[in-house]
Amino acid sequence: MLEALTSPPVAVTLESFTDVAFWTGVGIIAGTYTIFALGLQLNVGFTGIFNFGQAAFMAIGAYAMAILTTETAISFWLSLPLAVLIAIAFGLVVGLPSLRLRTDYLAIATIAAAEAIRLFALNARELTGGGQGTFGFSDDWDSISETIEGWIRDLGWADVPTLFPLLIVVWTVAVLLMYVLSRIQDTPWGRVLRAIREDEDAARALGKNAFSYKLQSLAIAAALGAISGFFLALNLKFVVPDEFLPIVTFIGYAVLILGGLASYWGVAVGSVILWTVLEGLRFLELPLSESRIAALRFILLGLVLIGLMAFRPQGLFGKREEMVLGD
Amino acid sequence: MATETTAAGRPPASASDGAPIFEATEVVKHFGGLFAVDGATLDVRERSITALIGPNGAGKTTFFNVITGFYRPDGGSASLSGTPILGRPPHVIARLGMVRTFQITKALARMPVIDNMMLAAPDQPGERIVNLLARPGAWRRREHEVRAQAMELLEMFNLEPLANEYAGTLSGGQRKLLELSRALMASPRLLLLDEPMAGINPTLGRRLLDHMRRLRAEEGVTFLFIEHDMEVVMGHSDRVIVMAEGRVIADGTPQEVRTDQAVIDAYLGSGTVAERGADGG
Q1: Which of A119, A160, B30, B193 has its CA 20 to 30 A from that of A322?
Q2: Which of B144, B202, B133 minimizes the C-alpha distance to B173?
Q3: Domains of chain A, with CATH numbers?
C-alpha cells in the first residue's frame, strides 16, 4: 500500500515544472493565443459570425511583417501597422462576398480562404521562402529585447530568460487590447453588434446596417489576428506555413469555449489554462514514446473540455443565463 | 424603376381623408412560379389605423417583407411620403420612418430589455466606431436622452420593472409589447405590425389597441397592421384593405368591406376572387 503511494504510475518531474525559461515560453504562447482569440471572441461571442479563418489573419500579419522588413527598405516598426492594414484589407476581401452567407456557409468560406493563404505561402517560394520559411526580421526587436533584459538584470534578477521581455510585451499588449475591446463593447456600437448576434433581421428592421457592422467586426478580428502573428513570429524568429494550419483556429475556439462566450477576460484565462494543460502534460512520465505522449496531451485536453461542457457549459467566464436564453 | 405613381383606379377611401403617407403600385413578388404578391396596389392615409386582412396565403406578410426591403421585389413601386423605397435595404427604409414588427416576435433574447429599447433609437453617433473616440461627449449625451425616453416608453407599457431583465425571460405577451415599444423608439411615422394580437390574451390585446389609438392621437403615428381577428379589425381600424391571391380585392371602411361580395367570396372560397391577368399584373 505504502509502496504504491511512493511510486505512483504517473509521475511529474518537479524540476521542469519550476523551469522559468520553459514557462516563459508557455506564457508567450498563451499571450499570443489570447490576442488571436480576442478576434474570435469579437466575431463569435459578440457579433454571432463564425469566422473559421482567423489563422489566415495571423499568417498575413506574420508574413507581411517579415517580408516587408527583410525584402524592402521599410523598417520593422513601420512594417507592423502596414501588416495590420494588409490583414484588414484581406478581411474585407473575404468578408464582402461571404458575410452575406448563412452562418455555416460563412464558416466554410472563411476556412477555405485561410487554407488558400497557407497554401499560397507554401508555394510562393520567391516571396515567402516556401516550406523553409522567412527569417532575419527580428533585429530591431532583439535589440529592444536586450535593453529590457538589461533593465530586469539591474533590478537584481541575474538569470532572466532571453524570451522574458517578449512575455512582458505580449501580455502588456494583450491586457491593453482586452481593456479597449471591453470598453468599446459597452458602447452603442457594441450594442448594435450584440443585436446582430441575437437577431440580424430585428437589427435591420430597426435601421441598423448589419452587413457593415459584420464587416467591421471581421476587420477588427483580422487586425487582432495580425498582431498575434507578430508575436508568433518574434517568438519563433521565423515564419513557416505549418504554423497556420486550420488547427490553430480550432485551438482558438477551444480557448473561447474554455473562457466562455462574450467575455474578453475569459479569453485570457482560457488561453492560460489551455496552454498550461497542454504544455504541462509534457512532463507526464509514462511508459510511452514521446509522440504518443504528445498525442495523449490532446486527448486529455479533450477530456477537460468535455468535463467543462458537462459541469460548466457556459465556460469559465460566460453567463449561464445567456447560455440558456440562446435558444 | 421607382418612378412615382399615384394609386389611380383605386376606390376612394371614405374613412380617413388624410393624404397618403405610403403608396404601393403593382408590387410583385414571386417565388419560382408562385406569385405570392401579384400586382398589389394600395395606399395608407396619414394618421390612419389601417388593417390589412385576407385569407391565409393571400400574400400579406410577403407584401410586408417586400415593402420593408426584406425581400427583393420583382416589380412595382412604393413610396413613403413621396420617397421611393421599393428595393432599398431594410435599414434605409426603417430610417426613413417606416418601421415594422414581425409575426414571430424578435426579442433580442440575451440583451436586457432596456438595451433592446435603446438600440432602436435613431441618430446615435456612438454607433459609428470613429465617434466613440472622436465625439465621446456627443454619444454619451445622446445615450442619456435615449435612456430616459426608453424608460418613459417602458413605463407606458408597464414593462418598467423588467427593464434590466434579459428580454428572453419575457412572456409572449410581454414580448409583443416590447417589440411595439421598441419599434416606437425608432420614431416611426408609419408602423407596420404583423399580427400584433396573435398569441396574446384579450386584455393585453385591448391595451395594445388603446396604445395604438393614443399614439396616433398624440404622436401622429400611422398604423398598417395585418390581423386575423375580425372583431379587432372591424372594431378598431378606420380602413380595411383586403388581399387575396396576391392582390388587393377590396378597400374601404369596415362597413363597406364587410358587405363586399368579393371579400365574402374570398373568405368563403366560392368562385374566383379576381380575374387574373395573363402576365400577373
Answers
A1: B193
A2: B202
A3: 16-325 (1.10.3470)
